[in-house]
Amino acid sequence: IESNQNHFPRTASALMDKNAIETRLLQEVKDHEEVDSWKFSQSRGFPHDDVIGVLNALQSRDFLQSKTSRLAVWSLSKQAEDVILKGSPEAETYCAVPTEGISLQDLQGVVGAETIKHGLSHCYKNNWLLVDKVSEDLKMIRQKVTSIEDLVKQQLEQFKESGCNPEKCDSAILKNLKRRKLVVSSSRTVFSIKSGPKFDLSRSDESLDAALTLGMIQDGSWETRNFKPYNFNARGQKIPYGCLHPLLKVRSEFRAILLEMGFEEMPTNQYVESSFWNFDSLFQPQQHPARDAHDTFFLKKPASSPLSHLDYAKRVKTMHEQGGDGSIGWRYNWSEDESRKNILRTHTTAVSARMLYKLAQGKFTPKKYFSIDRVFRNETMDSTHLAEFHQVEGFVADYDLSLGDLIGIIAKFFEKIGIPNVKFKPAYNPYTEPSMEVFGYSEATKTWMEVGNSGIFRPEMLRPMGFPEGVRVVAWGLSLERPTMIKYGFKNIRDLFGHKVDLRMVRQNPIARF
Ligand code: PHE
To answer: Locate the Aminoacyl-transfer RNA synthetases class-II family profile domain: which residues (predicted)?
Structure first.
């Protein structure tokens, strides 16, 4: 059913109109046996869509039945209406040519480029005008006949008078008018309507019982009552429901994979961290550029928080200032004030540091931990960077772990998320040594892409926490956005996250499977 064919205004009395359509339509089916929905709507002045609406309702109650067919509909184009008002472009062009002739340029000045474009060639074809070559660079357009007849205008007028009936128009003429885009044809679905098995002139609603009741079942009256039949083809009402954002879908997949690999999840519900856990505990010196306000968001209120583990903080201070266990430290004066500054955590490694500290207390048992949550960086935003994103991070703590263990764990994890080919490149992190960037081969783009970062936590970080000698912690991290963008085909991170996200995207995206 085409919905844009009618331009009747919708009014508050729509319901009344429906009743009027219903009464009229039933009457007409009774009088004529077969009724054409289009002709009915035109002759009675009802919008065709509304007629179809009423028809559907009456049909569902078996009052009526119908068959559909496609009907070609002809009409005049906007240009044709202009021709009927002002004459065809060729007639207009002809009339603008004076007896003494005129140059093309001047003619264009009189009637305009549009009219010339559509009219001039027809003037030549009809032998109304000719071109007179006065000299090498002067051409004059002159009249060839003294009077003309504007046939196209007459044809259009006649066609319009016939109600745009193609049968009332010579087929060659119609073809020509169509070619000149003066008449257009389109098709529309129309319904041939007949009476149905329960045909009745009275209003259909009134003869229906609203709903089946217990009483009707008990007294058996349901058998003789008139119910609206079930419509098994009706689309159910859309159910309002919540849905997971793609990042959360990928997160739950990653979570399942890591749990399957024997990792436990760390609590990440703390966006605000002290600089101590985000940086100092990780042996990141206080003058490190990442601790700058250009890279990190500092809180104004409360700007700082007290250190919770003073003995440990003291050991961290000593390690930064002087080193220990074979390290010479960073050799500067460590400031407690600096470490107390509150920030939005810049990486989930702050979460890992808290967990590692806890793990180092008491008797050590080997553990595997992971986290997936939001982090914040004071970055210039572009198509691949936002000031907040999500990190996936994991670590394994055990005696005598080697780089081989780290490579093995990472390779396994990436294999499980669909990146079976990984390469490693030496890198630098203040808290890991050695450090490796992880590259994954993308089958889609046939390139190696950076997919993560990793390393073995430094003894300068682990010893102050209280880990016994020989315990090593291998760790790796990656963003959640990168694999999500690849998985869902996002080119711009702002289409995935932030205030410009199209909520339909969130509703419609499929589940993620790795
Ligand atoms: N914290 C690092 C980052 O922000 C990732 C990482 C985690 C690196 C663990 C090494 C070990 O990129």
So the answer is: 249-510
Gap from CA of 438 to ligand 1 centroid (Å): 11
Residue type, 369: Y
Q: By C-alpha distance, which of 276, 453, 433, 264 is closest to 365?
A: 264
Q: What is the pLDDT of residues 277-296, one digit of tens each?
A: 999 999 999 999 889 888 99
**Topology of the domain comprising 90-149:** Arc Repressor Mutant, subunit A (1.10.10)
> Between β-strands 447-457 and 432-442, what pairing exists: parallel, antiparallel or unpaired?
antiparallel
Q: Where in the chain is the domain with CATH 3.30.930.10?
A: 247-508
Which phi and psi (to 5°) does residue 471 adopt? -80, 125
Residue with CA nearest ligand 1 atom 10:
454
Q: Is 155 in the pocket of ligand 1 (CB under 6 A)?
A: no
Q: What is the pLDDT of residues 463-508, one digit of tens each?
A: 999 999 999 999 999 999 988 988 888 888 999 998 889 988 998 8
Q: How many CA atoms lie within 13 A of 14 on its CB side?
A: 11
Largest CA distance in the chain: 115
CA 283 to chain centroid, in Å, comes to 44
Mutate to test the pocket of ligand 1, among 453, 454, 479, 480 (most ligand atoms within 8 A of CB): 453
Structure tokens at 142: 């002159």
Pairing of strands 432-442, 471-479: unpaired
Q: Which CATH class for the 247-508 domain?
A: alpha beta
SS (H, E, C) 231-278: CCCCCCCCCCCCCCCHHHHHHHHHHHHHHHCCCEECCCCCCEEEHHHH
Query: Model-level pTM?
Result: 0.61
- Where do the CATH 1.10.10.2330 domains begin and end in the chain? 90-149
DSSP letter string, 90-144? HHHHHHTS-TT-B-HHHHHHHH-HHHHHHHHHHHHHTTSEEEEEEETTEEEEEES
DSSP bridge partners of 391 = 373, 479
E-strand spans in 244-400? 264-265, 272-274, 342-344, 367-376, 388-399
In short, whether 476's Cβ falls inside 6 Å of ligand 1 is yes
Average pLDDT, the chain: 90
